[in-house]
Amino acid sequence: MVTSLFDRLRDLARATGDRVGVFYIDLDQFKAINDTLGHQHGDMILKEVARRLLAVSTVDDAALRIGGDEFLFLAHEAAGRVRLEEQAHSLQLRLSVPVSASDRHLKVTPSIGLACYPEHGDDAEALMRFADWAMYEAKSRSRDRCHVFDAQLRERMEREVRLVADLKEAGAREQFDVHFQARHSVRLGRTVSVEALARWHHPALGMVPAGEFIPLCERAGLVNMLGHFVLRRAMQQSCAWRQLGIDVTIAVNVSLNQLVDARFASDVRQLFHVTGCDPHRIELEITESLLADDNPVVHDNLRQLRELGVRIAIDDFGTGYSNMSRLSVTDIDCIKIDRSLIVDLPRNAAIVETIIALCRVIKATIVAEGVETTTVADWLDQHGCDQMQGYYFGHPVAAAVMQEELLAQYAAEAEIIRATGTHALP
Ligand code: C2E
Ligand code: CA
Ligand code: CA
Predict the structure, then answer these.
(1) DSSP 77
(2) How many C-beta atoms lie closer than 10 Å to residue 45's C-beta?
(3) Does the global pTM surpass 0.85?
């Protein structure tokens, strides 16, 4: 249907040297309207959006609903008509006008992606894909805006498509690895914990950062497989280090996709069984939005994991939406204050002091992430932070390097004890 509509417009435009725009329109947070106000209000909004789209269409244009809250608008930019880019902006404004429903005014904003014939391609399928990408770009920038597909986006998109294809093979080809980053205890003055961070050695592109490939794994449904690998590695490492007398907790990141799987906790139990690792040595880092989510499977998994003896940490605290009531009823062992709040210290001292006070109330260990300078480390030291992590204390490193560092730390401590005859640490 879309293809035949597009082909007709394209053939028309080709004959006259005109352009055709494919607008991908997605309503922002439409689900929230459906969930809070009911489907009746949701339906009303969809009908109004459709009406507004049809109102701006000429005989040469086409408007279609292609999914729940997704619309496609195909427009022919004939000579003398407004340019497609300007049309995107006016669509944006027109669709954002509040809809009157019952006694309220509902405002739903659209995110719009635009791809054009001939400059971006000449077949419907490709242009829809490009417009969809541009729409995602609009959403990721701040929603309620439009974005026009461009060469930069194409390059990123092609890299992503390639990375996703390669990721599917990466596990079997043993390209994944785990690096470890130290967490420094303020009181003990040494590393007491390490965070396991996934690494991907791409055969042609080199080391791909976790920040880039983890979201791709999540979208491609591969994150559970990767998460299982990292957990297993962390448990094996914990056993190996314990045999060497190294006493550290290993923190492992867990993604939402893992926690919404009803089998997650039993898979973890099985892994403890297979590796022989002590559950008290493992801490699982989850993001705060997971707590805000009322998904019973997530909470059941967390309860089972705690029963096993695993510690639970809230990662990137202060960046998302936190449900404070959940924080107090859920047993949280540790809160990791996000780097974005830490780098600005001491400028935003008030916020961090408040978070520290909150952590004290719920008796959680307080970890500051992204500590890069002496100024920040000193400030945190003086304001009751328990642990710090960041480049100031060390970058993530391979297991063998971390092992050397930990052993050297123990050797230095033993030397102090031998030389002074006392335990140097409080
Ligand atoms: P995260 O959990 O917040 O991990 C910390 C990230 O910040 C790491 O990036 C680390 O290298 C970086 N970092 C640490 N200290 C500093 C600092 O002082 N300055 C700066 N600028 N950065 C610092 P990385 O390894 O690229 O990981 C990015 C994200 O990917 C992680 O953020 C985590 O959300 C995710 N991730 C990593 N490994 C895993 C994994 O095994 N499973 C899952 N689900 N997610 C993972
Ligand atoms: Ca983390
Ligand atoms: Ca973090």
Answers:
(1) E
(2) 21
(3) no
